[in-house]
Specification:
globular, 10 strands, two-stranded antiparallel sheet, alpha+beta
């Protein structure tokens, strides 16, 4: 597969260097910049990559890992929702998982998306699917994370920054944030698998 991002960058760079009427060489194709951009938009609208067989002699490269590019589970490499996700089945699982967690534990689950972080964390903050007050202190919460499909397996893989972040919180490093303008601490993380 040839990275759409790489091709887009090549076309944009060639256009900037030579003007929009200049010719640009893509793998196996020589076109004017405007024509090449238009063809790429048409072929890959809504996709993150295209089949290299559409560009003869194109070198093979790994799938892109940029922001917004689906890593295979509807999220990008940063864990954000990927571009072009019209149908997000994991959102239904998330909602159902939070509802069931609340019912199973007789608690109110807050579904507001709150960014929490701690100094030296392995990622720039973390949002949990839900929050539940835990009574460990004033404004302390459990972060509830719902995983479905193969997301739990990916979450537990070595090097997963969400997993590292959550382990640090569970080991005693609270993550601070603001909920409705009030300072809060997430002092525990509960991961729940929803089938």
């Amino acid at each position: 597969m040839v990275s759409l991002r790489r091709m887009w960058d090549d076309v944009a760079e060639a256009g900037l260097k030579a003007g929009k009427d200049a010719e640009v060489r893509l793998p196996g194709v020589t076109r004017k910049v405007d024509d090449a951009l238009e063809e790429m938009k048409t072929k890959v609208r809504g996709n993150d990559h295209f089949d290299a067989s559409d560009a003869p002699n194109a070198p093979s490269s790994p799938s892109p890992t940029g922001r917004g590019v689906d890593r295979g589970d509807g999220r990008d490499h940063l864990g954000h929702y990927a571009n072009g996700q019209d149908n997000k089945p994991w959102l239904d699982k998330e909602k159902l998982g939070l509802q069931r967690y609340g019912e199973d534990n007789d608690v109110d689950v807050i579904t507001d998306q709150v960014v929490v972080d701690y100094g030296g964390s392995p990622q720039n903050g973390r949002k949990y699917d839900g929050l539940v007050q835990n009574g460990e202190g004033p404004n302390t919460y459990d972060g509830i994370e719902i995983k479905s499909g193969n997301a739990l397996e990916k979450y537990a893989q070595p090097g997963n920054t969400q997993y590292q972040f959550d382990n640090a919180v569970n080991a005693g490093t609270p993550a601070a944030g603001k909920l409705n303008g009030n300072d809060i601490l997430v002092t525990r993380v509960i991961v729940r698998e929803e089938a």
